[in-house]
């Protein structure tokens, strides 16, 4: 996933709102968001190659989401699955702080990642790149792409601004999906340098990534109301930015 925008306790009626795009090669098999048969409390998509997931929520209000850290070098082939970091938190019972402490202790087992985990009370963040330990996040709006939290890449800056505007329009959802569908390419003078070729920096600079073999596979909106109703809407895409399906699931959790 290459973009996650989170409003954490920043709206009086919606303590958690997430808008996210998952970017991946079209050849990598995946399943759309659904409740998992072996863990029926978990609602998430699934990477059918490694078995993990990139974003999900549980009926117990456990939330997790992950992005890869773009390093411009070949990923280690023997590294642990990063998607398992999300799946294990969603299906487990550890607190966010205890879980991230466990993850940090084996951080070198993974290729570069950023990880959000939350329960109904706390949102925490950890990256195994940079020198920062796991930390709790205070109420506010946060953005994450394929660098560290709130790194001011152009698509993150514009995405956060559009996300704040969409937040004010809740319960309407259209503006969230409008921002997730933005295919504007950033001017070369504003592109980050992450070790990939300039042509790829251009492609990856859009909120909605589009190329022949790689691009945005899913756009997800997750909204939790203070009365306990959680709704997840996910739109799936295939090559050519063609919509291939939409999932809408809701459930009520204890407050």
UniProtKB/TrEMBL annotation:
InterPro entries: TANGO2 (IPR008551). It comes from the Bacteria. Pfam families: TANGO2 (PF05742). This is NRDE family protein.
